[in-house]
Structure formats: C-alpha cells, structure tokens
Specification:
Layout (H helix, E strand, L loop, with lengths): L13 E5 L4 H9 L17 H5 L11 E5 L4 E11 L12 H10 L6 E9 L8 H15 L5 E5 L12 H4 L12 H8 L3 E15 H8 L7 E3 L8 E4 L2 E13 L2
Parallel strand pairs: 4-5
Antiparallel strand pairs: 1-2, 2-3, 3-4, 5-9, 6-9, 7-8, 8-9
C-alpha cells in the first residue's frame, strides 16, 4: 500500500511513492547519483550532513518521497525529510539544518514535527511546478504520520547572487506585489509557509583549501574572505583551511 497520497493538481503522468514503496528506486537514485547535479559541488561535503542524510533509510523510509514520470519510468524528483522533537518555541528551534539533523538522530525523545531536508527536481523538469508539489507532498506525509508542523530550513535560490548581504536582510526583500524577492521563499509563502527565523550558520563545510580550490575552480592564495561561484556566503580562509557556513531560512507550514 502506498504511504503517500498523490499530490493535488498533479499532472496525470506523475506518481508519488515513498522509499518504503520502492526501495529499488531509492537505491537506484543513490547509486547513480541522479540528483547530484542539482547542488553545487561543495554542497556534497558538509561536515555533519552525511550523518543525518545517511540515517533516513531504512529508519524513515516512509517519510522519503520520489516522483516518477510514468511515461518513461524515470525518477524526476525527490523529497527528503526527517522527524524531530520540537516544543514549538523559537528557543527550542534548532539552529539550522545541521542542528535539526543531529537532534533527530541523537535524541531519544519521540519526534513531534517533520523537517524537510531537501527538495530536488531533475533539471529537465525544473520550472514545471514539481518543487511546489514536493512541498505539498511532504506536508501530506507529515499529516499522514501525525507530525505537525512541517518545517523547512530553506536554501534561498538567488542568495548566491548576493553573498555579502546578511541572510536576515535578504529574507526581508519583497517585490512590488508584496511577495518575497527570492523565488524559493516565494514558493513556500504561496503555499502557506511563513518565516520563523534566519540561520546564518545552518550548514558547516570546513575543509582544506586544496579541496575548496578543487570544488570551486578558484585559487585561494592567502588568508581572507572570498566570494565564490554558487556560494551563499563568503568562504573564510585561514591556516590552510577554508570554513564556510551556509545560511538558511526556517519556514513553517501547518499540515
């Protein structure tokens, strides 16, 4: 039996399944790295991310979503989530994606909320509304399993264009129609999401400068702050090490 309902207003060719429904497809996605190209190379090297992303299946297989294009049998989108304990207050809200992931895998208390970790869409299907459908489906998964609310440490899509602007200011930028300037924040808000808090140090990536030079195609010849392609914030270089903290924006959705 499927563990997730079909997304509302989804195209007829789209089918939603979970990793429990189709473990074979989940494994295929991982072994063939089907969504690796969605992210900048540096994003695959978080210091803590492997711990919680690696814990999603089989433990939380019912909470991981795949979208299949039934015309071709291709997996065209993936939504990854993790349940965690949260008392509903800002004081208890984890400080970003690393913090929520680590809390989820280390605390023994029963989880009460669900956090989105990633909404990934095949590049050839981007712009077709699948990202919004992923959010709706994650919300449905939360509701089905009794988690309320759904939270998301959103990675703003255009923040790399303004890496020197603090995330708190960037998240407040609005268009003339009153909606957020950033398209990913805008998608969440249109679906009923609202900002809880900005996190300037959400995802940590600390690595030797040689690794950063390979990931970015840049040269970092001396200590200092560097802006690099695809980065949402500057890279701090010191003593042969590059330290980067990616900012996120916590958004909350009722289920």
């Amino acid at each position: 039996m499927a563990n997730v309902e079909q997304p509302p207003n989804a195209p007829a060719w789209l089918k939603a399944v979970t990793a429990e429904d189709r473990p074979d497809l989940w494994e295929l996605v991982n072994t063939q790295h089907l969504f690796d190209g969605v992210w900048p190379e540096y994003n695959h090297h978080g210091n803590h991310a492997g711990r919680y992303f690696g814990a999603l299946v089989p433990t939380h297989a019912t909470l991981q979503v795949l979208f299949i294009d039934e015309r071709s049998g291709r997996v065209v989108a993936r939504g990854r989530t993790i349940p965690f304990r949260w008392d509903g207050t800002l004081d208890d809200l984890p400080a970003g994606i690393d913090a929520v992931g680590i809390r989820a895998i280390t605390e023994s208390a029963a989880p009460s909320a669900l956090s989105a970790l990633a909404a990934e869409v095949d590049p050839s299907y981007q712009g077709s509304g699948l990202s919004a459908l992923l959010i709706k489906t994650m919300r449905a998964v939360a509701r089905l399993h009794g988690f309320d609310p759904l939270l998301a440490p959103v990675r703003p899509r255009w923040k790399d264009r303004y890496p020197l602007t603090p995330i708190e200011r960037y998240a407040r930028w609005r268009r003339h129609d009153g909606l957020p300037f950033d398209p990913w924040l805008r998608t969440h808000e249109r679906l009923g999401g609202r900002v809880l808090r900005c996190e300037p140090r959400s995802l940590e990536i600390t690595a030797p400068v040689a690794d950063w030079e390979r990931w970015t195609g840049m040269w970092f010849p001396e200590a200092g702050r560097y802006v690099f392609a695809g980065g949402l914030a500057p890279l701090e270089v010191s003593d042969g090490t590059g330290t980067y903290f990616e900012p996120n924006v916590w958004m909350i959705h009722g289920v």
